[in-house]
């Protein structure tokens, strides 16, 4: 029971620290702090909060995009969702919308 409690407490402290960084950040400053902790191996990946900051949406929106058919591509490591920057850009490009061409009505036959 003690190990279970310690793991839960450690996870809670980690989440509180990440939330505090997000709450205190200005202009995505916490994103650079998180990357410093992560190192070079995952430098091309963003977590859900960092991606939301860069796209100017709420983290909940990123979660909803993941659930969509043909949704946002991600990698999952343990409980963490990681988003590769290039794949996210490709996903955004694939969603590029163009205006529908103006349909021309066929000429009416005059009697």
The helix/strand class is mainly alpha
What portion of residues is helical?
A: 40-55%
How many separate domains? 1
Assembly state? single chain
Main sheet, how many strands, which sense, barrel? 3 strands, antiparallel
**Low-pLDDT runs:** none
Number of strands: 3
Question: SSE string, helix = H, strand = E?
Answer: HHEHHEEH
Rg over CA atoms, rounded to whole Å, is 22 Å
Judging from the principal axes of the Cα atoms, what is the shape?
Answer: elongated
Distance between the termini: 90 Å
Side by side, the strands of the main sheet go 1-3-2
* Helix count, DSSP H or I runs of 4 or more residues: 5
* Average pLDDT level: 76
- Report the portion of residues in β strands: 5-15%
Folded structure, characterized:
The protein is mostly helical. Helices cover 54% and strands 9% of the residues. Helix 1 (2-24) packs across helix 2 (29-38) and helix 3 packs across helix 4. The protein is elongated and about 90 Å long.
């Amino acid at each position: 029971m003690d190990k279970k409690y310690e793991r839960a407490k450690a996870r809670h402290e980690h989440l509180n620290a990440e939330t505090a960084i997000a709450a205190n950040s200005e202009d995505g400053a916490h994103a650079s702090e998180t990357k410093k902790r992560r190192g070079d191996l995952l430098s091309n990946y963003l977590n859900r909060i960092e991606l939301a900051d860069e796209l100017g949406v709420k983290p909940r929106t990123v979660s909803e995009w993941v659930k969509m058919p043909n949704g946002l591509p991600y990698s999952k490591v343990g409980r963490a969702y990681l988003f590769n920057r290039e794949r996210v850009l490709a996903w955004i490009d694939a969603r590029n919308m163009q205006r529908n061409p103006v349909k021309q009505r066929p000429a009416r036959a005059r009697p």
